[in-house]
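Per reviewer request, we include the raw input and output of the structure prediction for the construct analysed in the revised manuscript.
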Amino acid sequence: MSKLLMNQLAATNMVYGRFSFEYFIESMKRLGVKNIELYACSGHYHFWDSLEDPTPRVKKQLRQAGLKVISLMPEENVYPVNIAAKEPELRNKTVDLYKRFISAAVELECPQMLLCPGRPYHNQPFSESWKYAQDSVARLTAHAEREGINLMYENLNIKESLLATNRFDQFRMVQEIGSPNLKCCVDTVPVAAAGEKLADYFSLMGEKLAHIHLNDGRPTGHMKWGDGTQDLDEHLDAMRQYGYSGYITMEMAAGMYMTDPEPHYAKNIETLRAHFDGGEPVSYTHL
Protein backbone atom coordinates (compact mmCIF):
# COMPACT_ATOMS: atom_id res chain seq x y z
CA MET A 1 0.00 0.00 0.00
CA SER A 2 1.21 3.51 -0.76
CA LYS A 3 1.73 6.19 1.86
CA LEU A 4 -0.28 9.38 2.33
CA LEU A 5 1.82 12.45 3.10
CA MET A 6 0.85 15.76 4.62
CA ASN A 7 2.24 17.64 1.62
CA GLN A 8 -0.65 16.23 -0.42
CA LEU A 9 -3.09 18.35 1.60
CA ALA A 10 -4.55 21.61 0.33
CA ALA A 11 -6.81 24.19 1.94
CA THR A 12 -9.39 26.47 0.38
CA ASN A 13 -10.62 30.00 1.05
CA MET A 14 -14.27 28.92 0.81
CA VAL A 15 -14.91 29.07 4.56
CA TYR A 16 -13.10 32.45 4.77
CA GLY A 17 -15.79 34.24 2.75
CA ARG A 18 -16.56 36.66 5.61
CA PHE A 19 -12.90 37.68 5.82
CA SER A 20 -10.70 39.53 3.37
CA PHE A 21 -8.49 37.62 0.95
CA GLU A 22 -5.47 39.14 2.69
CA TYR A 23 -6.63 37.69 6.02
CA PHE A 24 -7.01 34.27 4.40
CA ILE A 25 -3.44 34.43 3.09
CA GLU A 26 -2.05 35.35 6.50
CA SER A 27 -4.10 32.57 8.09
CA MET A 28 -2.61 30.01 5.72
CA LYS A 29 0.87 31.24 6.62
CA ARG A 30 0.11 30.84 10.32
CA LEU A 31 -1.20 27.33 9.72
CA GLY A 32 1.81 26.32 7.65
CA VAL A 33 -0.35 25.47 4.61
CA LYS A 34 1.40 25.70 1.24
CA ASN A 35 -1.13 24.26 -1.22
CA ILE A 36 -4.28 26.21 -2.09
CA GLU A 37 -7.44 25.26 -3.92
CA LEU A 38 -8.49 28.75 -4.94
CA TYR A 39 -12.23 29.30 -4.55
CA ALA A 40 -13.15 32.00 -7.08
CA CYS A 41 -15.76 34.06 -5.27
CA SER A 42 -16.79 37.68 -5.03
CA GLY A 43 -14.59 39.64 -2.65
CA HIS A 44 -11.62 37.31 -3.00
CA TYR A 45 -11.20 36.58 -6.69
CA HIS A 46 -13.87 36.92 -9.33
CA PHE A 47 -14.18 38.64 -12.69
CA TRP A 48 -17.44 40.28 -11.59
CA ASP A 49 -15.73 42.36 -8.90
CA SER A 50 -13.88 44.77 -11.17
CA LEU A 51 -13.50 45.93 -14.73
CA GLU A 52 -9.87 44.91 -14.45
CA ASP A 53 -8.75 41.29 -14.49
CA PRO A 54 -7.91 40.40 -10.85
CA THR A 55 -5.70 37.45 -11.83
CA PRO A 56 -2.33 39.26 -11.86
CA ARG A 57 -3.01 40.75 -8.41
CA VAL A 58 -4.03 37.43 -6.91
CA LYS A 59 -1.09 35.64 -8.50
CA LYS A 60 1.33 38.17 -7.02
CA GLN A 61 -0.24 37.95 -3.56
CA LEU A 62 -0.10 34.17 -3.47
CA ARG A 63 3.43 33.98 -4.85
CA GLN A 64 4.71 36.47 -2.27
CA ALA A 65 3.12 34.37 0.46
CA GLY A 66 4.69 31.16 -0.85
CA LEU A 67 1.33 29.62 -1.68
CA LYS A 68 0.82 27.28 -4.63
CA VAL A 69 -2.51 27.13 -6.46
CA ILE A 70 -3.03 23.43 -7.06
CA SER A 71 -6.64 23.76 -8.21
CA LEU A 72 -9.06 26.51 -9.24
CA MET A 73 -12.67 26.23 -8.06
CA PRO A 74 -15.02 28.88 -9.50
CA GLU A 75 -18.33 29.17 -7.64
CA GLU A 76 -20.94 27.06 -9.40
CA ASN A 77 -23.68 26.25 -6.93
CA VAL A 78 -24.76 29.62 -5.50
CA TYR A 79 -24.19 32.28 -8.13
CA PRO A 80 -26.45 32.74 -11.21
CA VAL A 81 -24.31 30.36 -13.24
CA ASN A 82 -25.38 26.88 -14.33
CA ILE A 83 -23.87 24.61 -16.98
CA ALA A 84 -27.03 22.46 -16.91
CA ALA A 85 -29.48 25.35 -17.35
CA LYS A 86 -32.39 24.78 -19.73
CA GLU A 87 -32.17 28.43 -20.81
CA PRO A 88 -29.55 28.76 -23.61
CA GLU A 89 -28.56 32.30 -22.65
CA LEU A 90 -27.75 31.38 -19.05
CA ARG A 91 -25.96 28.22 -20.13
CA ASN A 92 -23.89 30.04 -22.76
CA LYS A 93 -22.96 32.86 -20.38
CA THR A 94 -21.86 30.26 -17.84
CA VAL A 95 -19.67 28.49 -20.39
CA ASP A 96 -18.10 31.80 -21.42
CA LEU A 97 -17.37 32.67 -17.78
CA TYR A 98 -15.76 29.31 -17.08
CA LYS A 99 -13.65 29.60 -20.22
CA ARG A 100 -12.22 32.77 -18.70
CA PHE A 101 -11.40 30.87 -15.51
CA ILE A 102 -9.76 28.05 -17.49
CA SER A 103 -7.52 30.62 -19.16
CA ALA A 104 -6.88 32.22 -15.76
CA ALA A 105 -5.70 28.85 -14.45
CA VAL A 106 -2.92 28.99 -17.02
CA GLU A 107 -1.80 32.39 -15.75
CA LEU A 108 -1.94 31.17 -12.16
CA GLU A 109 0.26 28.20 -13.14
CA CYS A 110 -2.50 25.93 -11.88
CA PRO A 111 -2.91 22.59 -13.68
CA GLN A 112 -6.62 22.03 -13.13
CA MET A 113 -10.07 23.54 -12.61
CA LEU A 114 -13.04 21.97 -10.87
CA LEU A 115 -16.35 21.62 -12.68
CA CYS A 116 -19.62 20.85 -10.90
CA PRO A 117 -22.39 19.12 -12.89
CA GLY A 118 -24.91 21.98 -12.79
CA ARG A 119 -28.40 22.32 -11.35
CA PRO A 120 -31.22 21.10 -13.62
CA TYR A 121 -34.91 21.56 -12.93
CA HIS A 122 -36.40 18.77 -10.84
CA ASN A 123 -39.49 18.63 -13.05
CA GLN A 124 -37.72 17.90 -16.32
CA PRO A 125 -36.54 14.49 -17.58
CA PHE A 126 -33.06 13.40 -16.52
CA SER A 127 -32.15 12.82 -20.16
CA GLU A 128 -32.90 16.45 -21.01
CA SER A 129 -30.86 17.73 -18.06
CA TRP A 130 -28.01 15.44 -19.06
CA LYS A 131 -28.07 16.80 -22.60
CA TYR A 132 -27.69 20.40 -21.47
CA ALA A 133 -24.91 19.60 -19.03
CA GLN A 134 -23.02 17.45 -21.51
CA ASP A 135 -23.15 20.20 -24.15
CA SER A 136 -21.51 22.59 -21.68
CA VAL A 137 -18.92 20.07 -20.47
CA ALA A 138 -17.95 19.24 -24.06
CA ARG A 139 -17.40 22.89 -24.95
CA LEU A 140 -15.43 23.57 -21.78
CA THR A 141 -13.32 20.46 -22.24
CA ALA A 142 -12.42 21.53 -25.77
CA HIS A 143 -11.25 24.88 -24.41
CA ALA A 144 -9.33 23.15 -21.62
CA GLU A 145 -7.55 20.98 -24.17
CA ARG A 146 -6.42 24.07 -26.08
CA GLU A 147 -5.19 25.69 -22.87
CA GLY A 148 -3.52 22.58 -21.47
CA ILE A 149 -5.70 22.48 -18.34
CA ASN A 150 -7.40 19.45 -16.78
CA LEU A 151 -11.05 19.73 -15.77
CA MET A 152 -12.10 17.83 -12.66
CA TYR A 153 -15.78 16.86 -12.93
CA GLU A 154 -17.05 16.69 -9.35
CA ASN A 155 -19.76 14.62 -7.69
CA LEU A 156 -22.46 16.36 -5.62
CA ASN A 157 -25.11 15.13 -3.22
CA ILE A 158 -28.73 15.04 -4.31
CA LYS A 159 -29.56 18.24 -2.39
CA GLU A 160 -27.07 20.11 -4.57
CA SER A 161 -27.71 18.57 -7.99
CA LEU A 162 -29.55 15.72 -9.68
CA LEU A 163 -26.51 15.01 -11.84
CA ALA A 164 -23.38 13.11 -10.76
CA THR A 165 -24.83 12.05 -7.40
CA ASN A 166 -23.32 8.56 -7.67
CA ARG A 167 -20.16 7.10 -9.16
CA PHE A 168 -21.85 5.76 -12.27
CA ASP A 169 -23.41 9.06 -13.41
CA GLN A 170 -20.24 10.96 -12.57
CA PHE A 171 -18.02 8.59 -14.53
CA ARG A 172 -20.50 8.30 -17.39
CA MET A 173 -20.02 11.99 -18.24
CA VAL A 174 -16.24 11.61 -18.31
CA GLN A 175 -16.45 8.47 -20.43
CA GLU A 176 -18.88 9.93 -22.95
CA ILE A 177 -16.81 13.10 -23.45
CA GLY A 178 -13.73 10.92 -23.83
CA SER A 179 -11.03 13.56 -23.38
CA PRO A 180 -7.68 13.11 -21.62
CA ASN A 181 -8.29 16.56 -20.10
CA LEU A 182 -11.54 15.58 -18.33
CA LYS A 183 -11.12 13.65 -15.09
CA CYS A 184 -12.94 13.23 -11.77
CA CYS A 185 -12.80 15.02 -8.45
CA VAL A 186 -14.43 12.83 -5.81
CA ASP A 187 -15.83 14.46 -2.67
CA THR A 188 -16.31 12.14 0.29
CA VAL A 189 -19.51 13.95 1.36
CA PRO A 190 -21.64 12.92 -1.65
CA VAL A 191 -19.92 9.52 -1.56
CA ALA A 192 -21.30 8.96 1.93
CA ALA A 193 -24.66 10.55 1.07
CA ALA A 194 -25.10 8.03 -1.76
CA GLY A 195 -24.28 5.10 0.55
CA GLU A 196 -21.14 4.33 -1.44
CA LYS A 197 -17.47 3.84 -0.55
CA LEU A 198 -14.47 5.76 -1.82
CA ALA A 199 -12.96 2.42 -2.82
CA ASP A 200 -15.94 1.93 -5.16
CA TYR A 201 -14.95 5.09 -7.02
CA PHE A 202 -11.32 4.04 -7.36
CA SER A 203 -12.39 0.62 -8.61
CA LEU A 204 -14.62 2.12 -11.30
CA MET A 205 -12.62 5.18 -12.35
CA GLY A 206 -9.02 4.08 -12.04
CA GLU A 207 -6.58 6.84 -13.01
CA LYS A 208 -9.47 9.10 -13.97
CA LEU A 209 -9.96 9.71 -10.24
CA ALA A 210 -7.43 12.51 -10.07
CA HIS A 211 -8.47 14.80 -7.20
CA ILE A 212 -10.13 14.33 -3.81
CA HIS A 213 -12.13 16.52 -1.41
CA LEU A 214 -11.72 14.91 2.01
CA ASN A 215 -14.50 16.09 4.33
CA ASP A 216 -16.45 14.72 7.27
CA GLY A 217 -20.26 14.91 7.44
CA ARG A 218 -23.47 13.46 8.89
CA PRO A 219 -23.22 12.24 6.18
CA THR A 220 -23.34 15.69 4.47
CA GLY A 221 -22.21 19.04 5.82
CA HIS A 222 -18.57 19.47 4.72
CA MET A 223 -17.29 19.35 8.29
CA LYS A 224 -13.91 19.03 9.89
CA TRP A 225 -12.94 15.53 10.93
CA GLY A 226 -14.49 14.58 14.24
CA ASP A 227 -17.61 16.72 13.80
CA GLY A 228 -19.32 14.18 11.54
CA THR A 229 -19.90 10.44 11.41
CA GLN A 230 -17.81 9.31 8.44
CA ASP A 231 -14.99 6.78 8.76
CA LEU A 232 -11.79 8.70 8.00
CA ASP A 233 -9.53 5.65 7.99
CA GLU A 234 -11.80 3.87 5.52
CA HIS A 235 -11.31 6.75 3.06
CA LEU A 236 -7.57 6.90 3.67
CA ASP A 237 -7.10 3.15 3.34
CA ALA A 238 -8.87 3.27 -0.04
CA MET A 239 -6.38 5.91 -1.20
CA ARG A 240 -3.48 3.81 0.03
CA GLN A 241 -4.84 0.64 -1.55
CA TYR A 242 -5.17 2.26 -4.96
CA GLY A 243 -1.89 4.18 -4.77
CA TYR A 244 -3.41 7.66 -4.81
CA SER A 245 -0.66 10.30 -4.86
CA GLY A 246 -2.60 13.41 -5.93
CA TYR A 247 -3.75 16.41 -3.93
CA ILE A 248 -6.35 16.16 -1.17
CA THR A 249 -8.37 19.28 -0.43
CA MET A 250 -9.78 20.00 3.02
CA GLU A 251 -13.01 21.63 1.82
CA MET A 252 -14.59 22.58 5.13
CA ALA A 253 -17.56 24.78 4.25
CA ALA A 254 -20.07 24.38 7.08
CA GLY A 255 -21.58 27.64 8.29
CA MET A 256 -20.59 26.94 11.89
CA TYR A 257 -16.93 27.51 10.96
CA MET A 258 -17.33 30.79 9.10
CA THR A 259 -17.12 33.19 12.05
CA ASP A 260 -13.65 31.93 13.03
CA PRO A 261 -12.30 29.37 10.54
CA GLU A 262 -8.63 29.25 11.51
CA PRO A 263 -8.88 27.17 14.71
CA HIS A 264 -11.14 24.70 12.91
CA TYR A 265 -8.59 24.32 10.12
CA ALA A 266 -5.83 23.91 12.69
CA LYS A 267 -7.78 21.14 14.45
CA ASN A 268 -8.54 19.42 11.13
CA ILE A 269 -4.87 19.46 10.14
CA GLU A 270 -3.82 17.95 13.47
CA THR A 271 -6.45 15.23 13.18
CA LEU A 272 -5.27 14.31 9.70
CA ARG A 273 -1.63 14.40 10.81
CA ALA A 274 -2.40 11.60 13.26
CA HIS A 275 -3.87 9.46 10.47
CA PHE A 276 -1.45 10.22 7.63
CA ASP A 277 1.91 8.51 7.13
CA GLY A 278 4.19 11.51 7.58
CA GLY A 279 5.51 14.38 5.53
CA GLU A 280 5.07 18.11 5.88
CA PRO A 281 3.85 20.81 3.47
CA VAL A 282 6.61 21.96 1.13
CA SER A 283 7.42 25.51 0.12
CA TYR A 284 6.43 26.67 -3.34
CA THR A 285 9.36 27.76 -5.46
CA HIS A 286 8.48 29.53 -8.73
CA LEU A 287 10.38 28.05 -11.67
